[in-house]
Amino acid sequence: MAHEATHDHHDHHHAPQGFFQRWVMSTNHKDIGTLYLIFSLTMFFIGGSFAMVIRAELFKPGLQLVQPSFFNEMTTMHALVMIFGAIMPAFVGLGNWMIPLMIGAPDMALPRMNNLSFWILPFAFTLMLSTLFLPGGGPAGGWTMYPPLSLQSDSLAYVVFAIHLMGISSIMGAINIIATILNMRAPGMDLLKMPVFVWSWLITAFLLIAVMPVLAGAVTMLRCWPAR
Amino acid sequence: MAVVLALGAGIAQADPHPWQLNLTRGVTTWSGEPYFLNNVAFGVCVVIGVLVFGAMFIAMFRFRKSRGAVPEKWSHNTTVEIVWTTIPVIILMVLAYLATGGLVSFANTTGAQMTVKVTGYQWKWRYDYVDYLGKPISKVGFMSKLDALSDKTRQLGSGLDPYAVKTGNENTYLLNVDKPLVLPIHTKIRFVITSDDVIHSWFVPAFGWKMDAIPGIVNTAWTNINVPGTYRGQCAELCGQDHGFMPIVVKAVSRADFAKWLAKQEQASAPAPAAPPAAASSAAAPAAAASAPGGNG
Ligand SMILES: [Cu+2]
């Protein structure tokens, strides 16, 4: 919050903008990169607190703090939050910040889509984390949500939809990065002169586009499993 | 003498003990196989680790610039490339050969003298004795679930001490059941393993393997126990809220004792088929009631 406030103050001299305009409507790759990094840090603390619940319960033999079902919810939520909420947005945030700077581009190729791919994430995670407060509790299907166990979570549909949203966000981010790297390099910056970070993101972006539809299809098919 | 006794007890119980560094060797004709394979693979890792890190440290300390080391001019050496390609290929082929042998002998359930059907439930096991020494067994089967003392102790806020859950000298918190699976020693036993609800996994470390219990699929595995004793294991595939509370206990006894036990079981189920199931269901009732709210949601 303090970080955002200083930025707000700093920019005030150049272009008078409200907080909402400055951060929610931004198409600036650095602003969006910052948003990604702040989001990632927040999710890191939330996912970390789930791990703390797990570790606190395991601190000594016997059950002291939580019921086993809630313990399992913590395991699954920790996995989903850490991978989709902390690791991936952190990498995307660094990509947003660094790729245009490293290849000499003025901004990302598709700045409005950049804004959209970030702002899908808070909604996706609100949806997913809200399952913890629903009557059936959050998903409790282990790290990988394999069936049939994951089908016993009442909140599976919420989680599947949240993963769809995260997938859409990732695919849009990947398209944006590929378009930026392939089209917006400064003169003289040919592919083999690109920094290895940019190369790693180019490969990762192609992998994301290949993998995300498959993941979305797999989690959707979880709902097609015959109910018991 | 005390050491020998302790060692004997360790083999008979086969539970991990403090400062145990390696896997258990197990107590069956086959269980030495994964133990041996692990030791071979670990030995290879140690040798590679010593060579690689040794070379690194020698390079870093003896050939540092401050000691006047001057880099060589050559950049390619065909002999070295051939050597460091051939050696890993040989290592991998040896490991693959050994591991394949282990898998083939693991999967070979032919010539079994006895068959036991294992079914996973949320959150207990069912054992049905199918045949023994060529003769079919009828109606010998039972549910096996967490013992009452462990179950009471493991409730949230029970205030009971898990270390106080003991069988003899052994701490058996979450490792004891009401009715163990009784098996004869020196008998090749085929297990057919399946599940009624979600995926479980039947794992007794002293047998050297674990096998997934999957609804709609029957998996097979076998064992031939050499040493009488009590062997404990657990469900090894997350199966819901009480996954940690459905242990496995195998009591391996001599063939004579097993024949006696089996005759008693058959007698108990033969004359009054209605009585034992009723007794079993009333005994299982508190557990069923306790697990009902979360069951099959
Ligand atoms: Cu299980």
Please, could you describe this protein's structure?
The complex is a heterodimer of chains A (228) and B (297). By secondary structure, chain A is mostly helical. Chain A has one domain: Cytochrome c oxidase-like, subunit I domain (Cytochrome C Oxidase, Chain A, Up-down Bundle). Chain A has helices spanning 2-12, 19-24, 29-57, 68-103, 111-130, 156-183, 196-222. Chain A is elongated. The model of chain A has no long low-confidence stretch (mean pLDDT 89). Chain B is of the alpha+beta class and 297 residues long. Chain B has six helices and 13 strands. In chain B, helix 2 packs antiparallel against helix 3. Chain A binds chain B through residues 61-69, 72, 136, 140-142, 146, 148-149, 152-154, 228, and chain B through 153-158, 160-163, 173, 197-199, 215, 238-245, 294, 296-297. Residues 120, 123, 200, 235, 239, 243, 246 of chain B line the site of copper (II) ion.
Mean of the pLDDT scores of chain B?
A: 86
CATH architecture identity of chain A: Up-down Bundle
User: Biggest interface and its residues per chain?
Assistant: A-B, 21 and 26 residues
Helix-strand pattern of chain A: HHHHHHH
Provide the gyration radius of chain B in Å.
25 Å
Strand fraction of chain B: 15-25%
Q: Taking all residues together, what is the mean pLDDT of chain A? A: 89
CATH class of chain A: Mainly Alpha
Query: Going by CATH, what is the homologous superfamily of chain A?
Result: Cytochrome c oxidase-like, subunit I domain
Helix fraction of chain B?
Answer: 25-40%
Number of strands of chain B: 13
Q: Spell out which ligands are present.
A: copper (II) ion
